[in-house]
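Possible race condition, two jobs.
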Amino acid sequence: MEHSPAAAWLTEAASAAEQQGPGNLLRIVLVVMVLGCVLTAWFLLRGYKRKDD
């Protein structure tokens, strides 16, 4: 196992992130869409709760 300085590791990670493409953006969009669907379903379905008093 070779030892590399922190600066070399950081630049290597930054160049790998540039080559990754739009993956992080798509992940964020998917998470926001799923959360939005869950919140919308909760908002719409909570009106169907019946109170039998």
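Job #2 (started ~2 s after job #1):
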Amino acid sequence: MTTLRVLLADDHAMLRSGMRAIFDTQSDLECVAEVADGRAAVAEVARLRPDVAVLDIRMPKLDGLGATEAILGDRANRTKVILLTTYDSDEYVYRALNAGASGFLLKSLPPEELISAIRVAARGDALIDPSVTQRLIARFAVSIAPPVTPPELSQLTAREREVLQLVAAAYSNAEIAAQLHVGDETVKTHVSRVLSKLGLRDRVHAVAYAHLNGLVTRRHPLPPG
């Protein structure tokens, strides 16, 4: 079993200790460092290159969003970033999406969901707290006017573009497969090709890209639930 190396950044020592204790119960997770501020997080990620960095949004010296932007601005760095917060501010989520974070989760979530999110991020997928996703996508769908179509979109086939639109509308692979009457593996292949052609990091980055470029329309409502 591959061990995932995790860095933890939070300015509250008790919270760090609690999360580390949770990680220690998992045979496939190793907490390689704990830090108390954003600058230290950036420095330790550069030094240790962990698989996943779990960052609190509100930290001294440099907040979690700034740290995320610095970490993911280094193209040579393959560390995935998950942001934790007690606030589900749309502005926070929007900046996290644009920075390329692989997860945006509320601190109130159960420990097993954080553990699952770390594994999801490590394999290159992404996760936003469901309560945040539905509101955020609904807001963007009506508030962002379509800009000029970026030229790289011409690389996508009609089906790939439709898959991107459904991903951006918060559909899961299974829901996309049902919508398009294809298999799950076919959907995964389409998603992989979309990310590759557009130079996108993961599904979260694809969601941000699609909304910023006006690709989500009323033809793609939110899935039920």
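DSSP finds ten helices and six strands in the chain.
Logs attached separately.
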